[in-house]
Design the sequence.
């Protein structure tokens, strides 16, 4: 999928006019946001766990080559076949080769953001394979011909009514309004597809170096059916998913579901250690793992290294006022919300994505809730600086910033100009108390009025208050 991120403004403006999207996104605030707060408050060691998680991830990033080597040895010893992929094209080619060698016509797939990152579905389908998503949210967006809009809830932007219409159109039968009925219908359709599949593709939440295990986390059990029923299991994961030990994996798992949805643990957490053994009655005959780099090893030594701590919980987007208004599709690529505003420029290039780091109020909530304490505002600021250095924003934004910097470096002049501007605006806005239009503030007034200032600057008000108290 080619990034559409440069159109963020237009896409976000269109999203703001969509009442169904607003209804759908409100559920994140009342559901997952509150759920996380409750789960964090109920676990006394929550903050200590976050510190431990940061230490684990930083330790892995400092010793990434070592843990990848250990993982490769252990994974191979369990009977798995490991493939290294430098970039998306290499990963896609390996995946297709594995499917062809397995004689596959149909593949089932559980949710994998890395597979989205490399555009795997479209590539396999263009090469004659039928790909069936098995995560309910992914299945819904696949039927709708859309892409996921959230890391954890791919179809979080859709209302139940829209899903009901989609199911009726694709599955036939009467329109169902009840959530349980819709879930039962998806289950009935998907169960058949599991049995038809020759290859099952999953992602991985973690890779455990100590045991060579792949860890998957779902709430629907679809990763287990995707992995366990077909003859061949193919997992696609990125390098930074490796953790040293099972205990480390559990430290991160204790944070993952709490940060994502407020659950103590997801319904299904599975450690897959090698394909079916002779003594076992089920499981895949072969297990392949594609380990994708796609620029990550270069990130390890660079300013965006902290981003590689991400465990894809989605908490940053659940708490981001911009994401909660605009939704995931406004971001124009696979990774959305604050984490996407840092990662997408890394993978797709800042020239094609410079608008994303500007899609932030810098309120800092993303960093506050990130279980691995990624300084997302700082990283977005680094991308803003890079975009500015390359002169990517339009001249009006660049000259505006230059003018502001000129003033900010001259406090006396700054005070004088702001006093003048605030007094003028106060005078102009005295009649209505607000502006419905204002030059240079079109981005604000396009969807709401700008309150008129009192005519006195904040600094002057502050001084007056201090004087009255002394
Ligand atoms: S950046 Fe942090 S909060 Fe956002 S998805 Fe990654 S781990 Fe979760």
Sequence:
């Amino acid at each position: 999928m080619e990034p559409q991120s440069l159109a963020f403004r237009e896409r976000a403006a269109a999203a703001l006019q969509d009442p169904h999207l607003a209804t759908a996104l409100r559920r994140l605030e009342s559901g997952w946001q509150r759920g996380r707060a409750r789960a964090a408050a109920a676990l006394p060691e929550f903050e200590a766990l976050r510190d431990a998680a940061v230490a684990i991830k930083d330790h892995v990033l400092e010793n990434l080559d070592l843990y990848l080597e250990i993982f490769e040895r252990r994974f191979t010893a369990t009977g798995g076949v490991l493939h290294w992929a430098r970039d998306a094209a290499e990963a896609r080619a390996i995946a297709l080769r594995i499917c062809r060698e397995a004689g596959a016509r149909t593949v089932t797939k559980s949710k994998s953001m890395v597979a989205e990152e490399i555009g795997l579905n479209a590539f396999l389908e263009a090469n004659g394979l039928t790909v069936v998503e098995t995560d309910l949210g992914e299945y819904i967006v696949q039927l709708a011909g859309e892409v996921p809009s959230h890391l954890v809830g791919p179809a979080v932007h859709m209302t139940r009514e829209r899903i009901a219409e989609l199911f009726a159109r694709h599955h036939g039968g009467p329109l169902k309004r009840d959530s349980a009925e819709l879930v039962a219908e998806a289950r009935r359709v998907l169960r058949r597809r599991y049995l038809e599949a020759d290859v099952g593709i999953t992602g991985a939440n973690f890779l455990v170096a100590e045991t060579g295990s792949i860890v998957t986390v779902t709430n629907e059990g679809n990763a287990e059916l995707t992995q366990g029923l077909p003859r061949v299991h193919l997992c696609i994961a990125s390098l930074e998913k490796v953790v040293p030990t099972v205990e480390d994996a559990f430290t991160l798992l204790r944070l993952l579901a709490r940060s994502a949805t407020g659950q103590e643990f997801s319904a299904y957490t599975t450690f897959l250690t090698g394909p079916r053994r002779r003594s076992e009655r089920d499981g895949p005959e072969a297990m392949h793992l594609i380990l994708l780099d796609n620029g990550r090893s270069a990130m390890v030594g660079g300013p965006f290294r902290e981003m590689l701590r991400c465990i894809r919980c989605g908490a940053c987007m659940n708490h981001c006022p911009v994401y909660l208004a605009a939704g995931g599709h406004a971001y124009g690529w696979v990774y959305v919300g604050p984490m996407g505003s840092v990662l997408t420029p890394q993978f797709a290039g800042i020239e094609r994505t410079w608008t994303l780091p500007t899609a932030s109020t810098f309120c800092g909530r993303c960093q506050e809730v990130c279980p691995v304490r990624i300084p997302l505002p700082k990283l977005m600021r680094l991308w803003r600086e890079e975009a500015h250095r390359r002169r990517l924003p339009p001249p009006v934004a660049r000259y505006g910033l230059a003018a502001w910097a000129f003033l900010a470096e001259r406090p006396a002049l700054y005070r004088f100009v702001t006093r003048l501007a605030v007094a003028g605006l106060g005078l102009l806005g005295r009649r209505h108390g607000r502006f419905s239009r204002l030059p240079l503030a079109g981005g604000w007034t396009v969807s709401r009025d700008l309150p008129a200032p009192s005519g006195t600057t904040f600094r002057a008000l502050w001084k007056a208050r201090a004087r009255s108290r002394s």
Observations:
- Residues 399 and 405 are 10 Å apart (CA to CA).
- The first helix runs from residue 8 to 16.
